[in-house]
């Protein structure tokens, strides 16, 4: 019951903050809730100066709701399925090669380069961390967060083809990033000398291939059930069974749960709504998952703000996080540009697309959750604090400026294409 009361309190706070933001402040929903959560954290810490027992009680309650476990083993399945359900598969197919390459090669490049630069930055700042743990940081911070990206890009006036590329990449690179993180985590735990290359390759193939395969299988089974009835309550229930049962199966078989949810969501959201449902059922199903998406997004971003109370901060972590944010952005552009220009993918993009994809590649709760899953000997406190700083700066600074950034890039591209218009 303790967890029920805690979740109820967070949901009530989320609803209150969402109302205040919508009525008065009018920030993008995700960012408004994140800032509200941060403000509440600061208020609780301020009250802690008067009543330390109150602050300790709030921190203990938050620690009861293990953020890493809550996001990775519960919220993530719903949010990824909902995001994939509303993604147009036809438009996704048009950008399939860039999405596939950015979500695999791009994430691998980013993990290696970010981890290496992070290692040397810490050496320079005089608190070194072993290279393998720096690579772990590179793996957890490299994937863009589909939850943050989908939530914030809804408001941005962005070309549809580019929006599909960014959201499609974020849906898949999240699953791939988690697999890379797990692989490096295994190496860090066992020691490089005790891990064979074939083990990593097998783990990667099993997680990725198994996850996508399982998602398609359970999505197809659900599709066949939905095709044989026309009862929207039952079909919504089937979609819930796909998410909860499918994610549980993925964990049992050690497949990638995130990729399974993306595959199942794409199949049901496209084939299912077109060929297995009446218009009324498709409407109810999509609206139900829109509501699930909105509610859980609200809870997640308030929780990210509240996590400030349980993250051990020192001023040097904040400074390191600020510098690291610049590194992460620069490497993000590099990891997109290398495969783009090497394979000629850039020819299919609109002018300024790589810059927009870089600035629109937000980091979010998944990075924090992965950092919190580290063991204490992996420099967990330092990596969590630095990750938290990078995520906050990414969500607030990039999230709040993505619309003007897109306008500026678009206007500059138009000026370059029509130089006479500039006079």
From TrEMBL:
Membrane topology annotation: Multi-pass membrane protein
Instruction: List localization entries.
Output: Cell membrane
Q: Which domain of life is it from?
A: Bacteria
**One Pfam family in the UniProt entry:** Na_H_Exchanger
Span of domain Cation/H+ exchanger transmembrane: 13-407
The question of whether Hydrolase is a record keyword is answered with: no
Q: Which residues cross the membrane?
A: 6-21, 33-50, 70-87, 99-122, 128-150, 171-188, 208-225, 288-311, 317-336, 348-371, 383-402
**Does Transmembrane appear among the keywords?**
yes
Q: Give the matching Gene3D superfamilies.
A: 1.20.1530.20
Q: Which UniProt keywords apply?
A: Antiport, Cell membrane, Ion transport, Membrane, Sodium, Sodium transport, Transmembrane, Transmembrane helix, Transport
- Of which family is this protein a member? Belongs to the monovalent cation:proton antiporter 1 (CPA1) transporter (TC 2.A.36) family.
Q: What is this protein called?
A: Cation:proton antiporter
Q: Which organism is it from?
A: Pontibacter rugosus
């Amino acid at each position: 019951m303790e967890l029920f009361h805690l979740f109820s309190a967070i949901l009530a706070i989320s609803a209150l903050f969402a109302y205040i933001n919508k009525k008065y402040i009018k920030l993008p929903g995700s960012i408004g809730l994140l800032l509200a959560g941060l403000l509440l954290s600061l208020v609780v810490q301020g009250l802690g100066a008067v009543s330390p027992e109150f602050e300790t009680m709030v921190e203990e309650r938050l620690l009861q709701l293990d953020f890493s476990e809550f996001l990775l083993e519960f919220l993530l399945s719903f949010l990824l399925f909902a995001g994939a359900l509303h993604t147009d598969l036809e438009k996704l197919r048009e950008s399939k090669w860039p999405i596939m390459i950015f979500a695999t090669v791009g994430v691998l490049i980013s993990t290696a380069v970010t981890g290496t630069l992070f290692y040397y930055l810490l050496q320079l700042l005089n608190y070194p961390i072993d290279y393998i743990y720096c690579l772990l940081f590179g793996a957890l911070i490299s994937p863009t967060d589909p939850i943050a990206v989908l939530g914030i890009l809804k408001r941005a006036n962005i070309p549809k083809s580019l929006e599909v590329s960014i959201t499609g990449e974020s849906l898949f690179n999240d699953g791939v990033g988690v697999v890379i993180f797990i692989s490096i985590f295994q190496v860090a735990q066992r020691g490089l000398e005790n891990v064979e290359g074939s083990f990593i390759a097998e783990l990667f193939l099993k997680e990725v291939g198994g996850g996508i395969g399982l998602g398609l299988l359970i999505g197809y089974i659900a599709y066949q059930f939905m095709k044989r009835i026309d009862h929207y309550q039952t079909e919504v229930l089937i979609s819930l069974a796909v998410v909860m049962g499918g994610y549980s199966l993925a964990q049992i078989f050690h497949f990638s749960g995130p990729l399974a949810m993306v595959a199942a969501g794409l199949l049901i959201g496209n084939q299912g709504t077109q060929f297995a449902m009446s218009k009324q059922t498709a409407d109810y199903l999509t609206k139900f998952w829109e509501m699930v998406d909105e509610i859980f997004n609200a809870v997640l971003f308030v929780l990210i703000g509240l996590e400030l109370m349980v993250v051990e901060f020192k001023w040097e972590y904040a400074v390191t996080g600020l510098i690291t944010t610049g590194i992460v952005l620069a490497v993000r552009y590099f990891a997109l540009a290398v495969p783009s220009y090497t394979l000629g993918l850039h020819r299919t993009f609109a002018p300024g697309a790589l810059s927009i994809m870089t600035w629109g590649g937000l980091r979010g709760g998944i990075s924090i959750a992965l950092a919190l899953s580290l063991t204490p000997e992996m420099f967990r406190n330092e990596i969590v604090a630095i990750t938290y700083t990078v995520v906050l700066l990414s969500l607030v600074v990039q999230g709040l400026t993505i619309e003007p950034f897109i306008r500026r890039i678009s206007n500059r591209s138009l000026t370059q294409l029509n130089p006479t218009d500039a006079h």
